[in-house]
Design a protein that fits this description.
Elements lengths: L1 E4 L4 E6 L2 E6 L29 E7 L4 E7 L2 E5 L7 H10 L7 E6 L4 H4 L2 H4 L6 E5 L13 E4 L4 E2 L2 E5 L8 E5 L4 E5 L2 E3 L3 E3 L8 H12 L5 E4 L9 H11 L2
Parallel strand pairs: 6-7, 7-8, 8-9, 13-16
Antiparallel strand pairs: 1-2, 2-3, 3-4, 4-5, 5-6, 10-11, 11-12, 12-13, 14-15
Helix pairs in contact: 4-5
Length: about 250
């Protein structure tokens, strides 16, 4: 696996089909400490303890699954299409972990390219499942309950950002301490950063408002559901996009 330093805090790694962003303190290799509000019930205590933070991208060709690794625990953001469990397991093994390390599964929205892999993963998981309130009922979780989340909720040190429009319950996932944004389908980066694809958007006005909302965050890296991550000039690119949306 090859590493490329992008700035003082983000290290890009890539190999075996897995893309990674390791968040580093300049000297120690650990994320910088930050003050957080108490986590709600069901949120891992280790989320507030600092330590090495690593985002890994599992490339499923046209869509991606993201893994946040912290303190030996994992949060999986999106599950890809049906049949994606093997690729996600490979991503976990590349981090030296297994399904047993997964404590949280966060679904950005209900569409089958993002939530379709969940049902086959559930038997291997002892994790808590999360999705936006308005999307929960449409997701097949193989009988396992899904905890509804809304704007401002926190899971494993991750801030849930309500970004409706692509679907009415769409949420994006933001790590405030590192500035990493997992945007689901609120943003896409296929040659150029854009908002929700119009043909798959439930409410265009809400989708536009969600882009503007995300542009107000201190974003340092954008991990979209479709297209390559943006780790250089992410905030500027997002603000430029927001300025073009009416």
């Amino acid at each position: 696996m090859t590493g490329y330093r992008l700035n003082r805090r983000l290290l890009l790694t890539a190999g075996s089909g897995v893309f990674g962003i390791t968040v580093l303190n300049t000297l120690t290799g650990c994320s910088e400490p930050r003050t957080e509000t108490p986590a709600p019930a069901g949120t891992s205590a280790s989320a507030a303890t600092g330590g090495k933070v690593e985002w890994r991208r599992v490339d499923l060709d046209f869509v991606a699954v993201y893994l946040l690794v912290r303190g030996g625990e994992v949060a999986v953001v999106d599950t890809g299409t049906a049949g994606s469990a093997g690729a996600v397991e490979t991503g976990l093994k590349a981090a030296g972990l297994s399904w047993a390390s997964v404590r949280h599964v966060i679904l950005t929205h209900q569409h089958p390219d993002h939530a379709g892999g969940l049902a086959e993963m559930v038997p291997q998981l002892s994790a808590t499942l999360y999705a936006g309130t308005d999307d929960v009922a449409a997701i097949d979780a193989a009988g396992k309950p899904i905890q509804a989340v809304k704007d401002g909720d926190e899971v494993f040190g991750l801030q849930m950002i309500g970004t409706p429009g692509h679907t009415l319950g769409h949420v994006s996932v933001f790590e405030p301490g590192t500035g990493v944004l997992v945007a689901g389908d609120a943003l896409r980066n296929q040659n150029v950063l854009e908002g929700s694809a119009p043909q798959y958007t439930a409410d265009a006005a809400q989708a536009a408002a969600s882009v503007k909302k995300l542009a107000g965050l201190d974003v340092r890296a954008i991990l979209p559901g479709h297209g390559r991550p943006i780790t250089d000039g992410a905030k500027e690119a997002l603000q430029k996009l927001a300025a073009t949306i009416k």
